[in-house]
Design goal:
Elements (H helix, E strand, L loop, with lengths): L6 H12 L23 H4 L9 H17 L6 H11 L2 H11 L11 H14 L5 H20 L15 H14 L3 H15 L19 H12 L2 H11 L27 H18 L6 H17 L7 H4 L2 H10 L1
Length: 334
């Protein structure tokens, strides 16, 4: 039986996020000090995204709330989410976030993971009937869209790790924003970059997965990136070359959920996220395959297996609680 995003699950996830997107501490800032005056609080540095332990988790916590609000507008948390957005997505607060990024020391701030999530949030807000939030966030979204435009031509090599620096994840999420805003120039750049980086990849071994602090599968997120950006007639032959033995459940490591030994350790807790992000990728990849394709069945089964292991552990310790539900939503709604 396929695990789905129910109204009850959506309420649970929303309550988790509402408990941390405005929780300022503990906080792990990604902030360069050029002088004593730069020693400032998270809320002073980032008037919108100061919670959730770190900036990027706060951004995708807001994305999840926006998504759940649109998906389940009648849920009990809807009023609180709207009130939060009304006080958060204000032009002067967004302008302060933009001003932070204008500093020379912030050139690489949250690249590419935070960039991707901010654009994903911006995409989601464009789908809401109330456009005030989208309009307010638009200047910040444009800053990050421009960062992709400036950075990708300079990036000769992709980054293939299973953490925040993975470039396939960045391309894949930015593609949704480019489509939603009809930014054909950005969309073309994302496509050309994906082709340049990944077109010739064949027989992916995936023997290095998982590393001890992965929350993404470098193999599956690359495949998901290509699924999102390539036409079906181009993607399917590429996928057959990239994972040629998948019908035989090889590489087997992609089918085995990661074991999490200590959920109070932030790095080890990443592995719960790996199980969720693998489920997201497996389901998305399955959707690109014909219904009678045996790989589609294997992919759906792998997704269910990973979800069963991860879903019971979304809350309980803040090291996972401040971010895991977002990836659960991605997986359940893929």
């Amino acid at each position: 039986m396929r695990t789905t995003l129910t109204s009850e699950r959506a309420s649970f996830f929303a309550r988790i996020a509402l408990g941390h997107v405005t929780r300022e501490y503990p906080n792990k800032p990604d902030h360069v000090l050029s002088g004593a005056d730069d020693a400032r609080t998270p809320a002073d540095l980032h008037p919108v995204f100061y919670g959730s332990y770190d900036w990027h988790s706060c951004v995708h916590g807001y994305w999840m709330l926006a998504y759940l609000l649109r998906r389940f507008p009648g849920n009990p948390e809807a009023t609180e989410i709207r009130q939060l957005f009304d006080t958060s997505f204000l032009p002067h607060k967004v302008a302060a976030e933009c001003a932070y990024l204008a500093e020379p020391t912030a050139r690489g701030f949250k690249r590419p993971y935070g960039w991707a999530w901010l654009l994903k949030l911006a995409e989601e807000l464009t789908l809401h009937e109330d456009r005030r939030w989208s309009d307010a966030l638009a200047p910040l979204a444009e800053v990050f869209a421009q960062r992709f435009r400036d950075f990708l031509p300079l990036a000769i090599y992709p980054v293939r790790v299973g953490t925040h620096f993975n470039t396939a994840f960045g391309l894949r999420m930015a593609a949704d924003y480019a489509s939603a805003t009809n930014d054909m120039e950005l969309e073309a750049l994302l496509y050309e970059t994906a082709q340049r980086w990944y077109r010739d990849d064949v027989d992916c071994p995936a023997w290095g997965e998982p590393s001890g602090d992965d929350f993404q599968s470098s193999a599956l997120i690359e495949a998901e990136c290509m699924r999102r950006l390539l036409p079906s007639e181009v993607f399917l032959p590429w996928f057959a070359r990239f994972l040629p033995d998948i019908r035989h459940r090889q590489p087997n490591t992609l089918f085995r959920p990661a074991v999490v030994s200590d959920r109070t350790d932030g790095k080890i807790a990443h592995l719960d996220g790996l199980n969720l992000s693998r489920a997201w990728c497996w389901r998305s990849l399955a959707s690109a395959l014909p219904r009678d394709n045996t790989i589609r069945t294997l992919a759906d089964e792998a997704a269910e297996c990973h979800l069963a292991v991860a879903l019971p552990h979304l809350a309980g310790d803040y090291m996972g609680e401040h971010w895991l539900a977002t990836f659960a939503v991605l997986a359940l709604e893929a």
